[in-house]
Amino acid sequence: MLPLTQVLDCADGQCARRYGLGSEFGAWLDHFTDEMFGYVFASSVFYLIHLEKGVWSPHFISIVVVFAILGVGGKATFEAKESGMKLKDFEFKHTLGMYEEFYMTYIYIILMTSYVQAGAFPAAA
Predict the structure, then answer these.
(1) What is the overall mean pLDDT for the chain?
(2) What are the residue boundaries of the structural domains of the chain, listed by start?
(3) Rounded Cα distance, 101 and 48, in Å
(4) In principle, which of 5, 24, 94, 101 could form an S-S bond with 80, CB 3.0–4.6 Å?
(5) pLDDT of residue 123
(6) Which residues neighbour 3 within 8 Å (Cβ) at sequence distance 6 or greater?
(7) Helix, strand, or coil (residue 1)
């Protein structure tokens, strides 16, 4: 489902811009739903790892750090887009966010696969 959500998230904005259907509310809604997806996804992962390994485990601490980095990069990408920044004006956080956006589906899949392999999630009943 992650690749599908990423493709659809990209496609809706492109279609709106292509056909002149974009609006301020639509842009706000797109950013809002992106953020809510991120919060729900991260919260679910935190909860599941907490159940299996505990809050002070290396698994939990590392995923909190990874999601914090993803959050900073994502926020920087929104800032760069909204301000119309050019690549030559990017700071490191903007560049990080740009690459994060390009490869988000792969990042989520690799993260989840590595944590499942490490036994960080509760076993299915």
Answers:
(1) 83
(2) 34-117
(3) 25
(4) 94
(5) 66
(6) 105, 109
(7) coil
Q: What would the pLDDT profile of 23-53 be if each residue is shown by its tens digit?
A: 888 888 888 888 888 888 889 889 988 888 8
* Nearest Cα residue to 122 out of 42, 66, 54, 43: 54
State the Cα torsion 79-83-88-89 to the nearest 10°.
-70
Q: How much is the average pLDDT of 83-88? A: 86
Write the Ramachandran bin of 28: left for phi over 0, alpha for psi from -120 to 50, otherwise beta: alpha
φ and ψ at residue 107, rounded to 5 degrees: -60, -50
Question: What is the predicted pLDDT for the residue at 33?
Answer: 85
DSSP string, 9-48: HHHHHHHHHHTT---HHHHHHHHHHHHHHHHHHHHHHHHH
Which alpha helices (DSSP H) does 19-125 contain, by range? Answer: 24-53, 58-83, 92-102, 104-117
Backbone dihedral angles phi then psi of residue 103, each to the nearest 5 degrees: -115, 20
pLDDT the model gives residue 109: 80
Q: How far is it, in rounded angstroms, from Cα 6 to Cα 1? A: 9
